[in-house]
Design brief:
Chain lengths: ~375, ~375
């Protein structure tokens, strides 16, 4: 096992009716900036519940945060936050709104000239506005981690930053708020959570059997609940289990002491930046091809995964490992997630060229748990997708 | 799944050489009270490492905290803490020292007349001295939770309290510090962690499959690592996996949204209070008998446990459930933990009478996940032990 440091201070308030806990957790003093997305929260009643909780507080609102939130949009919100002297940010929505909230919280207090450098150069932060979250979409795990991913329209870039200053102070997770999600978003959330776990798990052996099993626990839970949930979208327990599984998939707990990959995310982010495909779609397309490209390095863990999660009885490691790749892609397909670039009208060859150029323009990359995926191999992964 | 609130602010610093992180985490100002136990830390070098880290800090020390730490001993330390105006408590040792540190931290700032009421009446706390920990014994999980169990010699009592104020600010876990543990303490730690998980797991179904699998992950890890560790006590990875498994077994994460039992602990605490047997011994004695007494209520989960953790192929639920009880007790025995009162020279019938009287004197009890274990059933469990 590797050495590690773990600390996660987020307060999770989970369950039916948990939005009622919002009011008492909001700061008594100081203006609150309430952020949200495209308005779905106005249809499903969450907006009204939050505005009610904000009743006696001084607040301003900023809607229209898009999926894969844009730097350009965030900077408008930063302007509002500064102009209105907001002291707290309340994120109401999914991971995109919350990722935006984290960047806005950091940018509003940023001492440098260009807040983009928080993403492009990992510029240091001295402080950030405190954040609270009401989550309405299980997927990104942003509700219990210090990560944020932001896109920039002007340069077709999608970059991330992580900083303990942007851990939410609290995150409220009411599974009932997810009943009304479109199937596409539910499926995206399942795939997103699944791939988050795989990035932390599907690497080489380093004697962390408990963390392996935690990861397998989440994958198994997602595989088992998905058909039940998709056939009955108002099943509270399946909604609750998906919501908690997605949080656990990226709150740092599963990866304590583990070797991690994250190559699929790095390549997938570029595909989203270039073609505007959903984040989860980009992951579902890249993951199986990355596993095959790195087969020799990952096959022991792939075989373990096939046996423990897909109940494979295959004794041969190589064959079991192939089974893991095939069955993972079949799982994605079974819940309605298509896993080929062509399914989205994207030419694999052209996409590979763009990936190669992009990574080369950054002076090369070294992705994956061994740092052995360079621009050429990344392009190869995409060309086979 | 049940509604829940979860927040755990402890910083875990885990791995080889991690005690070097101590110095920078100690407060710059204010006197530190360093607590430890029977002196094993002076033999294995941990004391020297800690004193070196404390180098430039103002500190006093208090040794001699016993296993099942006594209220009487703690109150001496409280007197020292107050007299020396200590502002921070550093616990160096196992769960007993840390449990004592938590009580001392609370009692030193207690506003009431009798600090025993923190335990006996759950008296409210307004504040507590901050605590840091260097852990040398994987077992209780105290390093990442807000719980403390204290015994009182004058009344043969063993009581617990929980308060977020006594979460350690940090806990340093270096598996190498556990190489020199006597086998008995290693075995006790394995059993303690195992039973902690069972208290959170072996109840009735409430649609929390992910948490079930997290619990099974810990149990499986303990069952798999135990023979390897006991045959090679200096195997770093097995020591590391035991240490992290014991922390995960009682940091609250596995039980989010679950129904919990804790009957075995409540009965076991009395056996330790009466007869001075090790905490883990008391749990290993009671657990199988409590499972059999509550068989109808627990058999579905017992059967699941037999299949997932002990690879049972038994199709019949009742038979599989019996197998879970038998194999759990066999696991304890296999690592050298005896599981009958008679093994420790204690008469089951007399012990049962004392348990019945003790619980009756408290106006009765309602233990277990259904609250249906009263004094009479508790006595029955003990009489069969």
């Amino acid at each position: 096992m590797e050495n590690f440091v773990y600390q996660n201070p987020v307060e999770i308030i989970f369950g039916k009716g948990s939005i009622s806990a919002l009011s008492e957790r909001l700061p008594k003093k100081g203006r609150i900036l309430m952020l949200y997305g495209g308005g779905s929260i106005k249809k499903n009643g969450v907006y009204d519940q939050c505005v009610k909780a904000l009743g006696k507080h001084d607040f301003v609102e900023f809607g229209g945060i898009e999926p894969n939130p844009l730097f350009e949009t965030c900077m408008e919100a930063v302007k509002l936050a500064k102009g209105k002297k907001a002291k707290f940010i309340l994120s109401v929505g999914g991971g995109s709104v919350l990722d935006a909230a984290k960047f806005i919280a950091a940018a509003a207090e940023f001492k440098g000239n260009d807040p983009w450098e928080i993403l492009s150069k990992g510029a240091a932060l001295e402080s950030a506005l405190p954040i609270g979250a009401v989550l309405t979409l299980p997927a990104t795990g942003s509700e219990m981690n210090p990560h944020s991913v932001i896109s920039r329209r002007s340069s077709d870039e999608k970059l991330h930053f992580s900083n303990p200053l942007v851990y939410p102070k609290f995150s409220i997770l009411d599974p009932e708020t997810t009943y009304s999600l479109p199937t596409r978003q539910t499926v995206n959330g399942i795939v997103d959570a699944f791939v988050h776990v795989m990035e932390q798990y599907m690497t080489y052996e380093n004697s962390s059997p408990l963390q392996d099993r935690f990861c397998e626990s989440i994958a198994l839970t997602l595989v088992e609940l998905s058909p039940k949930l998709l056939s009955n979208p108002s099943d509270y327990n399946q909604r609750a289990n998906l919501m908690w599984a997605a949080t656990c998939a990226l709150n740092g707990f599963c990866s304590c002491g583990k070797i991690q990959d994250w190559g699929t995310h790095m390549i997938g982010h570029e595909l989203t930046a270039f073609y505007g495909i959903d984040h989860a779609v980009s992951l579902a397309i890249v993951l199986p091809r990355l596993w095959l490209e790195c087969f020799d390095s990952k096959k022991e863990k792939l075989a373990q995964f096939a046996r423990r999660v897909f109940s494979s009885n295959e004794a041969d490691n190589d064959k079991a490992a192939v089974e893991a790749v095939v069955r993972t892609e079949a799982f994605f397909n079974s819940i309605g997630m298509r896993t080929r670039l062509a399914d989205y009208g994207i030419g694999a060859s052209e996409a590979a060229d763009r990936i190669r150029s992009r990574f080369a323009s950054r002076g090369g990359v070294s992705l994956g748990e061994r740092g052995d995926i360079d621009a050429e191999r990344a392009a190869k992964i995409v060309s086979k997708s």
